[in-house]
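Running log. JK asked me to keep both predictions on one page so they can be read side by side. First protein, sequence followed by its tokens:
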Amino acid sequence: MPTKRIFAAAALAGALLTSLPLFAEPLAATSPSSSAAAPNLMGQLAVFSPAAMLAQSAAPAAKTPASKSAGWSDDDDMDSGMPDAGVDKGAVASLANDTSDLRKTLIGLAMQLRDIRYVRGGRDPSTGFDCSGFVRYVFAHAVGLELPTNSASQFLAGLKVNRGDMKPGDLVFFRTAGKRGQGRISHVGIYIANGQFIHSPSHGKTVRVDSLDESYWAQRFAGAKRPGALARS
């Protein structure tokens, strides 16, 4: 009986050894097409990797063109008819003796910046100014007040002033885009005295003094505002 079991076990072991190549061969051998497909599949799987997706979502979004950033491009859309020249330098109004020192400082700095060229989005005398950049620079460096970044937001931030009550340093606003006097707030300057204001007008021009009585500005005048720093001066 033991002898028969030994022979049976030996026969089974032989059958297994004989059949192993049949099972091992498909696992060891691969066709050229399957080996070429493997890297492609792995490449596709990598695209959907959670780590890659998280990294992609954390990456900063592409920035919009500079001309549309921070609201600076909203200023100075001038329609036709703007005068090529402002008030003659010899006819610029003088400040009244009772003008506060704070307002004199503002106007003094603004006048020092005359003839600096207009640059859309400009905020510094080294490169040039647009209208709101000019006003913002003067207030920041003369009285340490940071104004909003464009004329429309500067208009909303100030205290309303009647035209007859304007003082040196108050801001004057205009609707220069669209139909005369009917568009949005798009331009700003700094009031001097005697109906005159200083501003950075538009492309091809420089910081200069203009008169509110000149027809172009009179038709587009939107009002005057007083920044908080000047409320008591």
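And the second, directly underneath as requested:
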Amino acid sequence: MLSSLSIAQTYEVINQENSGTSYRGLSFQDAKTFVVSGSKNTIGKSLDGGKTFTWINPKVVSDRDFRDVEVLDKDNYLAMSVDAPAYILNSKDGGKTWNKVYENNTPKIFLDAMYVDPKTKNIIVLGDPMRPDKPFVLKSSASNLKKWEEDLYVNKQLLRLKNPKEAFFASSGSNIYSDEKQTLIVSGGEQSNLYYYTSRGGQLYILDKTKSSTSGINGMDYNPTYNVGYLVGGDYKKPEESKHNLYKFKILNGAVSFVDSWKYPEGYKSGVTVIDKDKVVVCGYSGVDYSVDGGHNWKNITKDSYNTCKVSPDKKYVILVGNNGKIGKINL
């Protein structure tokens, strides 16, 4: 299952032990160590860049779908299950044991994504609205995981969705980016919008989509070092269609500025990872695509389906996770 992309790049499927599991959570601890999470109470860890895996089923809960996982620091992890009862679990020993740090039994609860600010270690969790036009937002900090607060504000701005039938896709745990200066939230469903908040105010950017309620933006990656971000999506019910599946943006003078692409990746995409100012990988049911010129041109790497992709901290490889227990790797 190894295919050559160029002299420097190769793709391979590195694990499919849990063929009945759907993976959507993925987070790196360091250049060799990463954690994956998914359905059937499954969490996995690799210490050697994906050569071998240790599989964990947290005993404090059962039959949960862990759609997102985040590394707080060395051997300190969070795992998020999505629907009622929704849990956030914490492990301080590298995944050996887990404890509940948050529980919500509200019938309509549905958590979509977690984001951890690498500098402040502040944690923000985004969920679908349980009241019209009000996203569910949960906040905590790595320094006090016993304290979780529901909040209607980010960067001192009141959160409100433009369309009451708007929500978020929990396809890759990447609907939100948040640091001390700014927060980005992207939605889909009946309408697809990018919300940008700073302490000076909030801005709304309406995104093109098809009429289907199963379309819109599914995932996002913004890299402040390069000041470049990508939104990816499409219609997950029509994975071969490429319409409105990618937006590229920068943040300039306190506003989001969109950058045109010449071509677009193939089909529906749910995950994206920025490698550097020019290189980016996107993934979805339709396969994996790679650009080396800032998203202007795309090369299809594989037609294999994946939900989430992330580049390693040393920028030497990308890990991909998907349905049917599939974990892939691109050596850059």
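Observation for JK regarding the second prediction: Residues 59 and 193 are 38 Å apart (CA to CA).
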